[in-house]
Amino acid sequence: MVFKVDVESFVLEKERLRISDRNNICVEICDVIDCHLSEEPAGFLSGLFWSSPNLVVRYICKGKNYKWTAETVQVTGSKEECEALQDKINENLGQVNQRPKKLGVFINPIGGSQNSLDVYNKVVYPLFKAANIKCDVNVSERPKHMIDLINCFDTASVDGLVIVGGDGSLLEVLNCLLTQAQKEAGLDYDQPTCKLKHLEIPIGIIPTGTGNGAAKFLYGTLDYVTAALHIIRGETNENNIQAVYSGGKLMSFSLIAVACGFFTDMMYEMDRQRWLKKARYAVVPFYMGLFKKKRLLNVKLSIIPGKLSSETDDIEGTMEEMEVGQVSSLISFSGDLFNNATDSTMDFVKMSQSTRKTGLFTLLAFKESGRLEFLSCFMGFLTMTRSLFQKDCISTHTVRGYKVKLPGCNENLDQDPSIARMNNLLDVDGEMIDIYEGEFEVRTHMKLAKFYTSH
Ligand SMILES: Nc1ncnc2c1ncn2[C@@H]1O[C@H](COP(=O)(O)OP(=O)(O)OP(=O)(O)O)[C@@H](O)[C@H]1O
Q1: What sequence ranges are listed for the domain DAGKc (predicted)?
Q2: How much is the mean pLDDT over the chain?
Q3: Which CATH entry fits the domain spanning 102-234: 3.40.50.10330, 3.90.550.10, 3.30.190.30, 3.40.50.300?
């Protein structure tokens, strides 16, 4: 939206600007995107219709449901008045030193609807350019190429990194940077109790993938403009990251969810059906839920129970064995689904804010259920309706860490080899990783990585 005001009704204070003839709109200086004088038209004819120079101020407007927009106000007045106002706004803006000046941008052109390049060129880059942010752009050309790109990239040459893609791309970058940081610090990072080194460089995500769970946690919305505006604003917060261990090794980090069993089978199938694009997220679960027989896992589960009053450090705590019986799948989220449990649907932003403080997260065990019950659970799961957790077929645990052993794996080698293979696959943020002998452990590491988010 663009609106005009007279320079007289524009009041600049140190940390905010006020527009008095517009219901007293008040804009914090840190929410100003840019401020520039509009150019005088070059031609004679257009010059005749040129009334007076304008100062154009763009700023972030924070709307409902976490959605942010870029608004424009044109200030009319004399050239001197507009120039003086421009100088003052830019001087105040220059003191907001959290803003990035240069970003390393990593684009996955085939993520989600395969529109990442378009989104970057048409939506994100114009905003970064307006905010005077320089960009070093890298585009991945094949699977896992993002890893090579980030490995060769000098992160010290930029203030932050931006991933234009999905959770898989973000995970590739995070895994690479976090492992590098642990190696440089000489840490024994394969030990689940090792206190890991925090990542210094802030990361932002433009959610052009399919699932985009990370953006929901960071920005509360999948809107590209909102994500870009969070990055421009430059405020950062440190989020907890989970680490997944198997066979005595750190296998992967995780920002969103870790799952085994039916969820892994489903993600595996979704990956095979990429040609369906986003539709695979609806088609595959319905097909598998209705027509495929679910594997049942005789899980041995140990957890570090989450106690809010506990003063324990994130990576400490004792594992306690749990009786869960046969389950069709296990899934853990990187947040505590039950903290602030007042809304009917889950608020990912609140979840990530609370888990930053407590380090607690939720583990769900899905027991065997009828096909219709499964589909109703799955719908609740997609919409993240809280009533989902009152269902008998789901048992919930608030934990700091957990360990799983799928006993069927080794003893059942004579069974269908594809099933034995699936028992050794784990779904981490939508990507498949191999685990050893059906065993894995998940631990939360508090405030391990910094993200561009004002929430
Ligand atoms: N140019 C490319 N060609 C083929 N594959 C690529 C290319 N660039 C990246 N990839 C691979 O694409 C995979 C998925 O990427 P990404 O996570 O960005 O999108 P998505 O899977 O659609 O989204 P989400 O993970 O949020 O569901 C990654 O495994 C990555 O290695």
Answers
A1: 98-250
A2: 87
A3: 3.40.50.10330
